[in-house]
Design goal:
Layout: E1 9-15, H1 20-33, E2 38-41, H2 45-57, E3 67-68, E4 79-82, E5 93-96, E6 110-116, H3 120-135, E7 139-146, E8 149-152
Parallel strand pairs: 1-6, 1-7, 2-4, 2-5, 3-4, 5-6
Antiparallel strand pairs: 7-8
Length: about 150
């Protein structure tokens, strides 16, 4: 019998208590602990540079191995930062930040979309995408920041 390709899980993370710059590295760390590789998509080169610097310095006792898609050896990076779509590092998880769009989430184990709950435009955009992913038959869940960390709401 033919096994159906596994459906990509799409996880929406509603940021309320922390900024993206704090939440993203923690989620990337967990991704690497699972033995998965990650691709982080953002919207422009300036933001890419900010995230790149942030991941080097986010915690003094932590090293988060990563690189940029426009640099040599991109295929070897456990975490790859990109503006354009790429599968250079064979990522298992696609992170969409700053409103970055995905042409497709096919082939990823998981797509993680982080949005700022204090930004009305980002909230509206997340609602629109939630509907689109649901219509596409994907396994969608919503995570909210509670007092003890992330809580799955639906």
């Amino acid at each position: 019998s033919l096994l159906a390709a596994s459906v990509t899980e799409v996880w929406f993370y509603h940021l309320e208590r922390t900024r993206l710059e704090q939440a993203l590295p923690e989620l990337l760390e967990r991704t690497l602990q699972r033995g998965w590789r990650a691709l982080v998509r953002t919207v422009d080169d300036a933001r890419l540079a900010e995230l790149d610097a942030q991941l080097w310095t986010w915690r003094p006792d932590s090293f988060l191995p990563h690189g940029r898609a426009d640099e040599p050896e991109a295929h070897r990076q456990p975490v790859l930062l990109a503006v354009e779509p790429t599968r250079a590092n064979g990522a298992d998880v696609l992170f969409l930040v700053d409103g970055a769009e995905a042409e497709t989430v096919d082939g990823y184990q998981r797509c993680v979309l982080l949005f700022d709950g204090r930004d009305e435009a980002q909230v509206a955009d997340a609602r629109r995408r939630w509907s689109a992913f649901r219509k596409g038959g994907l396994d969608v869940s919503y995570w909210k920041q509670g007092e003890r960390g992330w809580e799955k709401m639906s």
